[in-house]
Design a protein that fits this description.
homodimer, 338 residues, alpha/beta, 434 Repressor (Amino-terminal Domain), Rossmann fold, 3 domains, six-stranded parallel β-sheet, four-stranded parallel β-sheet, 12 strands, DNA-binding
Chain lengths: 338, 338
Amino acid sequence: MANLGIKDIAALANVSPATVSRVFSAPDMVSKKTLNKVKKVIDEVGYRPNRMGASLRTRKSGNIVAIIPDITNPVNAGIIRAIEQGAQSAGYSVLLGDTQGLEEREQHYADLVSHGQADGILLFCSRIPFKTDPNKSLLEQLPPMVNGNERIDSDEVVQVAVDNVAAAKSAIDYLISLGHKRIAAITGPDDIASSNERLEGYQLALKEAGIELDSALQLEGDYVVESGMDCASQLLLLPQRPTAIFCFNDDMAIGVMKFLQKQGFVVPDDISVMGFDDINYAKYVTPSLTTVHQPLNEIGSTCIELLLKQLKGQVVEPGRRYLPFELKLRGSTGKAPK
Amino acid sequence: MANLGIKDIAALANVSPATVSRVFSAPDMVSKKTLNKVKKVIDEVGYRPNRMGASLRTRKSGNIVAIIPDITNPVNAGIIRAIEQGAQSAGYSVLLGDTQGLEEREQHYADLVSHGQADGILLFCSRIPFKTDPNKSLLEQLPPMVNGNERIDSDEVVQVAVDNVAAAKSAIDYLISLGHKRIAAITGPDDIASSNERLEGYQLALKEAGIELDSALQLEGDYVVESGMDCASQLLLLPQRPTAIFCFNDDMAIGVMKFLQKQGFVVPDDISVMGFDDINYAKYVTPSLTTVHQPLNEIGSTCIELLLKQLKGQVVEPGRRYLPFELKLRGSTGKAPK
DNA sequence: CTGAAAGCGCTTACAG
DNA sequence: CTGAAAGCGCTTACAG
């Protein structure tokens, strides 16, 4: 396991380092005979080209960095898995940037690009993690980047997501079609763009149906199960309880159901509960959770594909690309009680 | 955003590149005055040292690679999150190697070390992803590495995990204490070391209690919910049904419960169900799942800590380190029916 | 406290 | 089809 370099291989094979390099990067340019000779040496000594040397020279690290709030969230994990596959088969490795929602960490990971440690960014949050010069167009200041799932408020960024407004609207439309009129919403944190979009869809649907908005029915959660429980308890204390609760993610919906059941309510007979995401466990809670399915695989693969294109130097039109969501009707929603 | 290098900064600040380098790596060696002068220039032009240059020179990439079967599995995700935190605060970045259980991918990611793209390996599977020379000791052929969660059959590897034998045994002991005698086991795939260890614990507990092993009660699953359902259906077809089912992970336990309930059985009155892992959702299924808790955070942080030590050149004693498991008694287990 | 110089391991026009 | 040479951006003994 000595540490042989390209020069050593060249010497052993009686060729120049340039030729050894070509054996890897452009074998067609090397004569069959030389190729075999060099390959034999490489095999014998187990030579592995040092990527750092190549990276320094080509100014390409071969890495991309994925910046996500929390890998523990099944939505993120599903997306990351797809990204990893796509990156791998294109010869890229992915650096995991789990930020726990902290802006400084988002910046830390985005900085990997300016330090040459990564060639592009997959960004799953709603801030641009750079200091940008407002006098210049964003586009020319940005490294190769795709913003997934979340929404950055700029037309100059390549974005991939579900249409959260439409998705939330269709969820509420469905509840309305079941006769519900008092429909509560448990949102995510209000600095999360996708949550605000879902809220927009919720309000839009109610307005269109001529149902007045009631701010008491609009609670801010933080996307964890416990927060669903808390909000459910607040909702039950209301003089006029909701007959349906739309949660902006499945975890909170699971919390809501758990709390309602603990209090002796029957879901969906007394109160309907609806989630968002369609995580794997949504099917397996009792009753099974009606929710909005997000195509995690497709989101991930589209993101990496668009980033890879940029990395190849192709032009990728900035702007949003919507992927289809799907309403999954299951057991947690039902007709509004009389 | 021009691409200035260390030489440019040196020129602008009227110092040598060596001094600029020291401003980052050894500021104590630089006089206050020079330090400020250089820092000012760095700030003004927004200089970011190129990591590839440094890496090539120091032969340290600053990356570690985490090799895991599936990031979508909550157990892995929890561990990875802890790893990421530890790595980050030590100045390392983590490359995500999601292998989908494929040996070739394990090797691909392990190879990043021989290519200088990573300095160490966190390995969460039960194969050594290198060609090793059986004549030499493993120890001297291995890069800095920690084997987490899974078990590689060698005393020369640093390993961190729960004692799966003891954990499974204590789970079964508990079921036995509830009066169960026909206890089924739904294992993981038989090439997974931790699954085999759990099986060992299961068998040990039964033997100690003088209960004869019944191979009909021992089914191989593959750790997904659907596989729990399949196995449950096989178990129900048995002339002598089990009164308790121990699943080697929570996902399969969730599948088992779902299937039993669909068939009209009451958990735990008719049949008790026990899981392993204590994923977040274990608390929230109905009934809540009795299971063996694994300390994901601690597993992850211990792994990264031990790797970091090796990376610093400290000697880490090879061998296994056990982290404490904990039986979580919840609603899915109860007294054996008469 | 500071600088000149060598070199980490590659790749790539360029010339032949 | 092949090689000599320059250089990517750093760091680090060494000397002063």
